Amino acid sequence: MQESLHDDGAMSSTSPGFFSEPVLRMKPSATMEVAQLARDLKAGGRDIISLSTGEPDFDTPAHIVEAAHRAALEGKTRYPPVQGVPELRQAVSAKLRRENGVTIAPQDVIVSSGAKQAISNALIATMNPGDEVIIPAPCWVSYPELVLMLGGRPVFARPRAPRFALSPEDLERAITPRTKWLLLNSPGNPGGTTYSPGELQALGDVLRRHPHVHVMTDDIYEYLVYGGARFTTFAQAVPDLADRTLVINGVSKAFAMTGWRIGYAAGRGDLIKAMTKVQSQLSSGANTVAQWAAVAALEGPRGQIEAFVRTYDERRRLAADILSASAGLACPLPEGAFYLFPDCTALIGRRTRNGVPIDGDAAFARELLNAHGVAVVPGAAFGTPGHFRASFATRTDALEEACRRIQRFCASLE
User: Fold this and answer.
1) Per-residue pLDDT at 22
2) Domain 79-299 sits in CATH 2.60.120.10
3) How confident is the model at residue 267 (pLDDT cuts 50, 70, 90)?
4) In sequence order, what are the residues at sequence separation of 6 or more whose Cβ sits closer than 8 angstroms to the Cβ of residue 208?
5) CA–CA distance from 8 to each of 28, 33, 36, 339, 360 (Å)?
6) DSSP secondary-structure letter at 351?
7) Which residues, other chains included, contact 319 with Cβ-Cβ below 8 Å and sequence gap of 6+?
8) End-to-end Cα distance, the chain
9) Per-residue pLDDT tens digits for 172-223
10) CATH 3.90.1150.10 spans which residues of the chain?
11) What is the pLDDT of residues 329-351, one digit of tens each?
12) Other C-beta atoms within 10 Å of 3: how many?
């Protein structure tokens, strides 16, 4: 008998080889772990402010909720097509053409239960053991774990701080004959990196020399850009590589629809067909009522979204100002998304007033939570130790209080 993992993370005894090697290699989502710990502490009576999860604190706009209600009343509650209801695929196609200058037919769009499933579908449909995926770090915690789960190899490119923008030289060094995908997230989680058209075109120059490498663009934070930054998707900047590009997006972040679980992918027809085959066996079609809500999101007014972005921008500046004034922290303003990613390396090696050593970003996050009740996610979870991620998608007064607590914690370290 050997030790194995239960769902709750506890070890139990079971027969050898019961769990797959990929699942034993996988790490649980660090953001979800920290968020759950914060919830547990709060339930136990602690005064906790969580900056750990990337979830808007706004309600879904009313016209979107009303569209879902209307769909339910009209009986649109049965199994949807695996690939998505035609009206939503048409709305996605029209949105890409109207807003991004990218022409992809509705039949080359698939709707999934969140952007994470769209990414997973693509990897399942294309990855063989030993295939490599280039992932610029810092990166969203799920990218490397999904690759590892399929027997692939995540290859971390490490762009220069503080922008963490992948350069042509970074990309060239990372490419090997086994490279299958470049996974590009712009605006990026957690660094906020937002690539300009020129930067994307420079990456395209490299990729033209390597026709076996495809590009998966995670555009989920598309509308959340600040300070004059402008969003451009790779297929828009490098149209001659469109047949090697898969666009991933969804309605969760900008439209405050995280729980509706609607994402989508758009790309070449044979890839979308393969992804549809995968989804047909894993989950079938995404929630029907939520798909009609997504139609309303993509086709409806954007006034509330613009108001959300203005509020995020105010919070971004407020939080960055406080953290930049904190002892030992460097906190650049992110160009997009809704996270700060401060550098805390100057505090590594110090001790708390109780003598606990801060021997890394995980210890920093742990002791911050213990001492001041603020939950952040260690940078190592995103492939970049010496930093931490703090979401500013939270109520402004709570965000300010959390940043003041972080400031006091930093000042207290000896």
Assistant:
1) 82
2) no
3) very high
4) 240, 241
5) 10, 11, 12, 28, 26
6) B
7) 331, 340, 390, 392, 399, 400, 403
8) 47
9) 999 999 999 999 999 999 999 999 999 999 999 999 999 999 999 999 999 9
10) 20-59+304-412
11) 999 999 999 999 999 999 999 99
12) 9
List pLDDT tens digits, range 34-90: 888 888 888 999 999 999 989 999 999 999 999 999 999 999 999 999 999 999 999
Integer Cα distance of 136 and 184 in angstroms: 7
Which residues make beta-bridge pairs with 249?
A: 264
Answer whether 379's CB lies under 8 Å from 386's CB: yes
- Report DSSP letters for 10-78, one per residue: -EEEE-TT-S-HHHHHPPPPHHHHHHHHHHHHHHTT---EE------SSPPPHHHHHHHHHHHHTT--S
Helices (H), 139-225: 142-149, 168-174, 197-208
**CATH class, range 20-59+304-412:** alpha beta
Strand pairing partners for 24?
A: none
Distance between CA atoms of 146 and 117, rounded to whole angstroms? 10
pTM here is: 0.94
CB 363 within 8 A of CB 370: no
DSSP 264: E
- CA–CA dist 369, 99 (Å, integer): 42
Q: Which of 255, 266, 263, 253 is nearest to 287 (CA)?
A: 263
